[in-house]
């Protein structure tokens, strides 16, 4: 996990969890106003949308980093920096527009997570487009790009007549599968349920969608991000085990002095 992804996770904790804690403690949002609800909803949707799309593009960039590294270095501004900025600015502009300027009325709930939902997300056209554009399509891109990457690496190792290919590449496979798997667990239930709810609404699907019940799954990736970071950085894992061994040795070397009689 790169520094950009980690910064988004820190923003998740600092900006979003603080509002959530106030909601769970008081039973209502920090400020009972539509302006605050619009702010919270825009911030939540923007960070979620941008983080998923950045992960999708980083999956593609990872392929170029391994197999076309000279091309990536030569065109770093076009291939790396411009897409990074685009996938930050574009979701923000989109969410601000659909929340504040769509021809519909937002009915925010001051007792729900992120004040419920915005009206554009319940509309069949804009709601379906938003979920497909923001979540489902990036997840499909992620699984395809990582599958192609793993297949090409294994094929290349096989052509080099290397034995025990799966064993030698188990760390890479574990990293990619854990990252993609957590994102799928986090977002696919919400995306599929919301799209179905736009065309075949039921009381259960409305409850899951409007009150953000399934959105709780998005924090699977956030809460387990330290584990994926440890898997992605072997030096960090070695340093953690080294510190644990030193702590264990220091604890075992402490002698218990009997109390004076």
From TrEMBL:
Major place of residence: membrane
GO CC terms in record: membrane
PROSITE patterns reported for this sequence: G_PROTEIN_RECEP_F1_1, G_PROTEIN_RECEP_F1_2
SUPFAM superfamilies registered for this protein in UniProt: Family A G protein-coupled receptor-like (SSF81321)
Listed transmembrane segments: 7-26, 38-58, 78-99, 131-155, 176-200, 212-233
A GO molecular function held by the record: G protein-coupled receptor activity
Annotated G-protein coupled receptors family 1 profile domain residues: 1-229
Keywords for the protein's UniProt record, in alphabetical order: Membrane, Transmembrane, Transmembrane helix
Source superkingdom: Eukaryota
Places the protein is found: Membrane
Protein name as catalogued: G-protein coupled receptors family 1 profile domain-containing protein
Source organism of this protein record: Adineta ricciae
């Amino acid at each position: 996990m790169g520094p950009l992804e980690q910064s988004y996770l820190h923003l998740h904790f600092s900006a979003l969890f603080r509002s959530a804690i106030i909601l769970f403690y008081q039973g209502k949002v920090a400020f009972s106003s539509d302006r605050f609800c619009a702010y919270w909803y825009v911030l939540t949707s923007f960070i979620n949308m941008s983080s998923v799309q950045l992960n999708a593009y980083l999956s593609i960039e990872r392929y170029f980093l391994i197999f076309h590294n000279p091309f990536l270095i030569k065109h770093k501004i076009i291939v790396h920096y411009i897409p990074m900025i685009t996938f930050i600015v574009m979701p923000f502009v989109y969410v601000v527009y659909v929340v504040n300027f769509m021809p519909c009325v937002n009915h925010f709930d001051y007792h729900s997570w992120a004040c419920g939902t915005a009206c554009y997300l319940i509309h069949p056209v804009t709601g379906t487009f938003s979920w497909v554009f923001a979540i489902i399509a990036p997840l499909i891109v992620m699984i395809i790009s990582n599958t192609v990457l793993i297949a090409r690496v294994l094929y290349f190792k096989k052509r080099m007549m290397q034995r025990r290919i799966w064993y030698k590449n188990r760390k890479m496979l574990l990293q990619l599968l854990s990252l993609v798997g957590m994102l799928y667990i986090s977002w696919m239930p919400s995306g599929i349920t919301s799209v179905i709810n736009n065309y075949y609404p039921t009381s259960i699907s409305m409850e899951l969608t409007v009150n953000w019940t399934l959105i709780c799954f998005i924090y699977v990736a956030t809460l387990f991000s330290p584990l994926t970071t440890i898997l992605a950085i072997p030096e960090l894992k070695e340093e953690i085990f080294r510190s644990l061994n030193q702590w264990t040795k220091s604890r075992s070397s402490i002698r218990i002095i009997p109390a004076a009689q």
